[in-house]
């Protein structure tokens, strides 16, 4: 009302006091994954109404502000990422700051057997070593010793494996993200048996020169023959003696000694063959001599 009594019509103003704080969330939540993730950010404006107007975020670990990127579509996370975000509702209230860390590990680990598979002359203690580089870390190594393909139900490696007979070892490892390497195979031949060696023809008395062939035989499942060494002067041969490569021509009285070595260094006993030659024809006489 003014000084002369004029009165205006009654006016009405309604005030809504909205103290609701919005909430924000990410789907999926942060964690360890073995594939890239598509992250959706969600906003709830609060209990007393209003609407969400924006979600602000960063992917470099820095703290976001209302000047940061505004969420509009799912965020592709392909590498390890620290996602920080908060929501704002229609009256300007903001949520607490949320942080989700995504670890993306797409690489399988690598497992090595030490020593590697080959032929040995004694039992071996095999260590399986898993490496995962900058990934999520090795969690388990599975193996078999019978040549079958291992699975996650197979024996879990924990201590060195003792191998004392011919063995096919198969194994693989898994990392914390669930990445699984391809099955690896190492074959071990444990050869503790000396080879044998023989000469053909054997030593004896002959009336003409002979070509002597030396033959090495290794045990079934062994490492195989490596070399034969020999002497023809009666001395005892060793691995530094002449190496047999072709038949040995013997034309005079000879003491041939020889020894075989397999591929892991097992040595046969020394064999000896004595060759004697008589090339003179006999002479026959008649007694009494014939009359003239």
UniProtKB/TrEMBL annotation:
**Gene3D superfamilies xrefs:** 3.30.1920.20
Q: Which residues form the GH29D-like beta-sandwich domain?
A: 28-98, 115-185, 201-271
Which Pfam families does the entry mention? Answer: CHB_HEX_C_1
Taxonomically, which superkingdom? Bacteria
Q: What is this protein called?
A: GH29D-like beta-sandwich domain-containing protein
- What is the protein's species of origin? Archangium violaceum Cb vi76
């Amino acid at each position: 009302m003014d000084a002369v009594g004029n009165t205006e019509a009654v006016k009405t103003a309604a005030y809504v006091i909205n103290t609701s704080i919005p909430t924000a969330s990410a789907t999926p939540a942060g964690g360890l994954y073995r594939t890239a993730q598509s992250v959706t950010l969600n906003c709830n404006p609060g209990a007393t109404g209003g609407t969400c107007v924006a979600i602000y975020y960063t992917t470099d670990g820095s703290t976001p502000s209302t000047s940061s990127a505004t969420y509009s579509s799912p965020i592709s996370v392909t590498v390890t990422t620290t996602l920080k975000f908060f929501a704002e509702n229609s009256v300007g209230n903001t949520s607490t700051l949320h942080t989700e860390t995504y670890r993306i590990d797409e690489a399988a680990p690598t497992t090595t057997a030490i020593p590697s598979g080959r032929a040995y002359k004694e039992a071996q203690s095999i260590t399986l070593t898993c490496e995962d580089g900058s990934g999520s870390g090795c969690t388990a190594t599975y193996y078999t010793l019978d040549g079958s393909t291992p699975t996650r139900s197979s024996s879990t490696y924990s201590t060195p494996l003792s191998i004392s007979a011919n063995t096919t070892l198969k194994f693989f490892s898994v990392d914390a993200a669930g990445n699984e390497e391809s099955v690896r195979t190492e074959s071990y031949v444990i050869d503790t048996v000396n080879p044998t060696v023989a000469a053909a023809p054997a030593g004896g008395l002959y009336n003409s020169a002979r070509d002597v062939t030396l033959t090495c035989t290794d045990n079934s499942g062994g490492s195989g023959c490596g070399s034969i060494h020999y002497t023809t002067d009666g001395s005892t041969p060793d691995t530094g003696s002449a190496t047999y490569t072709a038949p040995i021509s013997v034309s005079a009285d000879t003491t041939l000694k020889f020894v075989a070595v397999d591929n892991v260094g097992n040595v046969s006993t020394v064999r000896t063959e004595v060759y004697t030659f008589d090339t003179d024809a006999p002479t026959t006489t008649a007694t009494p001599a014939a009359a003239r």
